[in-house]
Model the fold of this input.
Amino acid sequence: MVTIYDVARLAQVSPATVSRVFNGTSVSASKVEAVRRAAEQLRFTPNRTARTLRRQSSEVIGLVIPDIENPYFTEMARGVEDVASEAGYSVVLCNSDSQLEKEATYLQIAISEHMSGVIIATADERSDLGGILATGRPVVAVDRSTTYDIDGVVMANRAAGASAAEDLIDAGYRRIAYIGGPEHIDTAAERAAGWRQALSAAHPDLDLDDLERFTTFRVDGGREAMEQLLALPEPPDAVVAGNNLIGVGAIQVLTEQGLTPPQVGVAVIGSLPFTTLSPTAVTVVRLPARHMGVTAARMLLERIGGDDQPSRTVVLRNEIQPASAVAAARG
Done:
């Protein structure tokens, strides 16, 4: 049986373009002609029931994130939902818990439910997007890069790590530690690289391996790593937390041990979701999570609408909010 994929290959267009032609959606005249010629040559007749299903599916997109409890991802999801809703689409939110098996299940659901596309923050570098990409559905990666030739929206992670460390250096701290998420996740590795770059330039004699910790992206990971760092023969006098929840965990431990800023400096990459400290006590490198969601949703909708330009990656800039209390105390 001839399928739209056969027509797409002969017409040298995407399956989504073939679907749009037969659904009456706006497509360039040249592509309409190519699709109709291919369909006629292959004697392809679109199935009316399938066309109805495609119309329904065109109103649903999937959003797969690794941690729904992290306010960073919920803020990003809000950006996706705002753009999708305005365009007449619904968003199905899927929480993978950073587990490849759960992620694969959700991607299969996106295929079986005929979702029009997917936005995904992958579980790790082994995430398999081949199956859904083979269906012709567009996929946009957010927060983390992938090995696939797809659109992406990421933060300037190396710059974020460097900015956080440089602010603490400028405030007078020297032994500045870094706590990041799993090292195999590029956001954690890139932020660590930025921290290393800044510390190596300012204090080349420091043993940075002794001051670096990789853990989970969660509060308990930040707590465990901070406890390890404080147990060193020569503890750090400041710490860069690689994400918001790590920052919460690190601050909890410091507070319990009576070492709140500015006694020990703290810089957090990502807005702190909750803390008993004054907002001016901690340096925060703000990540535009909602803007990431907005940008990714617009890119996905463009692909659904027929955009066939080469894949592109958008890098979003960070904004640093220095800890004024720390600067005043150390200045």
Notes: Confidence is low (pLDDT under 50) at residues 48-56, 325-331. DSSP finds 14 helices and twelve strands in the chain.
